[in-house]
Amino acid sequence: MVSFTPTEDQQLLIETIRRFAENDVRPTAHEHDEASEPNPDALKVGWQMGLIPSALPEELGGFGEMSAVTGVLALEELAFGELATAMHLMTPALFAYPVTLFGTAEQRENLLPMFLEEDFAPATAALLEPGISFDPYSLKTTASPTEQGFVLNGIKAYVPLADSATHILVYARNTETGNQEAFIVSRDQVEIERREMLMGIRALPTYRLKLHDVTVAPDSRLGGAVGINYQLILDRSNVALAALAVGVARAAYEYAKEYAKQRVQFGKPIAQNQAIAFMLAEMAIEVDATRLMVWEAAWKLDQGEDASKDAYLTRQYANKMVLMVTDSGVQTLGGYGFIREYPAERWLRNGRGFPTFDGLAIV
What is the dihedral of CA 312, 315, 317, 320, to 10 degrees? Predict the structure, then answer.
């Protein structure tokens, strides 16, 4: 029987991130969401926890343990603190983890050391594309092989921290093979439009990115001639996003539960009203159920098993769960749930965005 009891190291990580979330992130989350700006002090403390270096190879200075289970434990706690901060802190992983998994020896040696520095690593990735129906298996961004390498053309959306990134991992469809591949592109090769104004994750700067006849050398293709396992990247991203959804939903549930215990109407706490009690119970069940799905999919990834079905279903379930739970949180607060000074409406806005967050997280 599989046991998901955290190891001693994992429990220590959970407790460390939980303290970080409660002390450094949550107190100012509303302020930075309103200002649509990240919290630089929290990001500095969060980066110093070394979450990304812990997954990098030991021979390059990391701790050498890329564990999906450990990753989802960390992401849930980060998102419990604040989703935009969680995504901001882990944006460099969108570049570092695929390079770790699939990069050539030269790519790993040249690119991974930047993620071991004291300062925040200026790297991101671009997968999502604008349009009514985004299909990650049929990217509109193209990579056309030439004698000089590849020519990239296309438009990307929701590219986090693109304005400050020196390295961008761009996913594109190889026009010769039809395969989805990844290419290492420098910031000065692309055109970055103005910042996108989103309904949620407002403290995370995201940008639309244009590639017009961008020429990259052959060694810019991640993995060289071998390429990447694109499906595995999507699987790891789906599991990561589901873990973040659990963190947001848990935050909404716990706040609503405590509010219902303290809010007195007609001489008794509203938590004693059957309708509220049943709603809170359903919220708790959905959060716990989704967490178990996330853990199982992450465990399969760590075992090297085919987790594509588990990862996809978990992500789809989490998308619906987080919207239901955060909406129920707003309902529990009644009229106060619609007031911006209360965090319930922020969790609902963030939760509504999960179906559109393709490629914004990875474990």
Answer: -140
Question: For position 244, which CATH number holds?
Answer: 1.20.140.10
- Round to whole Å and give the CA distance between 259 and 50: 34
How far, in Å, CA of 136 to CA of 79, rounded?
24
The residues near 353 (Cβ < 8 Å, ≥ 6 apart) are: 198, 199, 200, 201
CB 143 within 8 A of CB 151: yes
User: Cα dist. 204→34, 79, 147, 156, 232 in Å?
Assistant: 12, 13, 39, 16, 26
Q: 15: how many CB neighbours lie within 10 A of its CB?
A: 12
**273: in domain:** yes
Q: Where in the sequence is the domain holding 89, given as residue range(s)?
A: 8-116
pLDDT at 7: 86
Please state, in angstroms and rounded to a whole number, the distance separating the CA atoms of residues 92 and 133: 26
Dihedral angle of Cα 314, 316, 317, 318, to the nearest 10 degrees: 80
Residues 343 and 234 in one domain: yes
Q: Which of 78, 81, 77, 80 has the alpha carbon at shortest distance from 89?
A: 78
Residue 188's CATH number: 2.40.110.10
Give pTM, 2 decimals: 0.95
In a domain, 344, yes or no: yes
Please name every residue paired with 173 in a beta bridge, in sequence order, or none if there are none. 142, 180
Co-location of 38 and 86 in the same domain: yes
Per-residue pLDDT tens digits for 208-259: 999 999 999 999 999 999 999 999 999 999 999 999 999 999 999 999 999 9
Of 162, 193, 220, the last residue of a domain is: 220
Identify whether residues 305 and 212 lie together within a single domain: no
Nearest Cα to 180, choosing from 166, 169, 190? 169
User: Which residues of the chain have a pLDDT value below 50?
Assistant: none
> Is there a single domain that holds both residue 236 and residue 339?
yes
What's the chain's length in residues?
363
Distance CA 321, CA 167 (A): 34
What is the model's pLDDT at position 260? 95
The pLDDT value recorded for residue 2 is 66
